[in-house]
Amino acid sequence: MWQYLLKRILNTIIVLFGAVTLTFFFMHFTEGDPATIIALDKYGGQLISPEAIDRLASEEGLNRSIFVQYTSWLKLICTGNFGHSLRSGVLVLDEIRLCFPYTFALALISVLITGIVATPLGIYSAAYQNRFLDHITRFTASFKVSIPNFYLAIIFIFIFSVKLKLLPSFGCDNPTHFILPVMVLAVSQTGFTIRIVRSTAVEILESEYVQFAFARGLSMNRILFVHVLKNIFIPVLTFLSLQFLMAIEGSIIIETIFAWPGIGKLFQEAVFGRDFTMIQALVLFFAAIVCAINLLVDMVYVFINRSISLIK
Amino acid sequence: MNKIIVFKSLIYKPYFYFLLFLVLAGINPFLISGNNPYTTNLSGRLEPPSAEYLFGTDNLGRCVFSRVMHGARISIGAGLSILLLSLLFGGTLGILSGYFGGWVDEFVMRITDIFMTVPTIVIALVLAGSLGPGTKNVIIILSITMWTGYARMIRGLVLDIKNRHYVETAKTIGLKNSYIMLRHILPAILPPILVMATLGMGRNIIMISSLSFLGLGIIEPAPDWGAMLNQGTAYMRTAPHMALFPGLFISLTVLSFNMVGDELGSPGNGSQFFMGAGNPGSQKGIR
């Protein structure tokens, strides 16, 4: 098992290294001189002079050859220091540390709500197949896959902020600001999660020990909430961890719409401002989250498998 | 014959006609809407839907309906270009890595690993930030980001096919690898690829409009649905129709592509043709 884990971790490091390399070279496809764009941003149109651009370029090392920049950036990562933002001058890591909790809270709350709503609905639609609830969930699931998050967000803003004037549509000052973005994320995940829970529950319901439980005359509710719920826990948790990743990914667009001060907005602004160090650090950060969650899920499975084989 | 069954079952589906309508709009938008999508009319700004302007007018007084219709050409056209490019590239690599295995496989799979670790939209944004907006750039950006999924899936299909008897036989009698791949493997995996491609169209359209929505894809004055949504958000309070209608078309289009894909891939209506068992390739094999 330890060998397997070691191999996985080694693989993760290779993939992260690849991601860093890839984004580095993708970013340098740029048309237009990055130093000019950043200087324009920093000093404004009037104050900008060729000397100022040159000074900025040499300060940030933007005038060196790509490979020199690449190796110095790699060295920087290895020291655990990600440099400072080209635009604001703040340490990149500090800024990410400041913004990430907002994104994390959004993703976590939405995934929790998804789990709480989807699990019972999925189990019920598995138990009572082709009834009303089953049809409804199937319909919403297939429908939701097709509505992009940003359109969902706009519809919600239209209904709840513009028409009903109930909820604020941007910023993050008090808990009511959470409602709309969380709702968008949760709604976008719930439909599909219900289908996954349903198909897992159907499998469990058809298994022999549940059939035996039926034969013993246990009530449907007892079977659903004791036998099925217990066994559905791990697969659903796995799926929800993937949904968590989707929520982090979705944050880029959601946060732009709701002016949410998380890493998604930070990333979008960095891309617009050609803030190279920030973009690179954030890409690495996104990739690291994905790798960490995948590794965690795999580890959980390894441990479960081991305990199963120990019982045998 | 099975092909006919599938297309017959599509004839009764409304979403199939919606797609036909969009293709028609894409070929000649003026057939459907008489207004020019670029003509501004500052005295008639932000007007609500009316008989002349079905979806109202936008902040420059342009007809939203005709802009949405012209947007069909961009969305479907760009989506199709991305699909073809990424399928060609990903498919070629997928077939090669599935068929040859070894270091080719290892190399391609490590690259797709990297692409799968970094969220698609993140890679797309990095590229969009450096290449800049524009229809051509969007096609390039999304082709670069989308090919990996196809490479993986097609590799999986090839792995399944390549151990079938007829392929082994073809190898034994000394046929060239390129011939086997083109004549024996490709026809066998074509049906699932078709399903994949239909579902991929939906994803492409969402990605295009996401980029445009963020202001990094297709930008004004081109009538792209995502860009129109982006503009519409600023006028949510005064003219919600500016955002609601383009978004509706994005959703309906993606929904239709997904439905057609499900229909092609679902078992029971001639899908033996589309998935696995009765594929044309396997019948050429020696039993």
Give a verbal description of the structure.
The complex is a heterodimer of chains A (312) and B (287). By secondary structure, chain A is mostly helical. Chain A has helices at residues 2-27, 34-47, 50-60, 66-78, 92-127, 132-144, 149-163, 176-206, 208-215, 220-258, 263-272, 276-311. Chain A contains 12 helices and no strands. The longest helix of chain A has 39 residues, at 220-258. The two termini of chain A are 17 Å apart. In chain B, helix 2 (14-27) packs across helix 10 (241-265). Mean pLDDT of chain B is 84; it is low at 269-287. At the A-B interface, helix 1, helix 7, helix 10, helix 11 and helix 12 of A face helix 4, helix 5, helix 8, helix 9 and helix 10 of B.
Summary, kept brief:
The complex is a heterodimer of chains A (312) and B (287). Chain A contains 12 helices and no strands.
Oligomer: heterodimer
* Rg of chain A, Å, rounded: 24 Å
SS content category of chain B: mainly alpha
Total helices of chain A: the number is 12
Regions with little confidence, pLDDT below 50 for 5+ residues of chain B: 269-287
Helix content of chain A: over 70%
Can you give the mean pLDDT of chain A? 83
Give the number of DSSP strands of chain B.
Answer: 0
- What radius of gyration of chain B results from the CA coordinates? 22 Å
Q: How many helices of chain B does DSSP assign? A: 10
Q: What is the N-to-C order of secondary-structure elements of chain A (H for helix, E for strand)?
A: HHHHHHHHHHHH
Note the overall shape of chain A. flat
Strand content of chain A: under 5%
Order of helices and strands of chain B: HHHHHHHHHH
Euclidean distance between termini CA atoms of chain A: 17 Å
Largest sheet of chain A: none
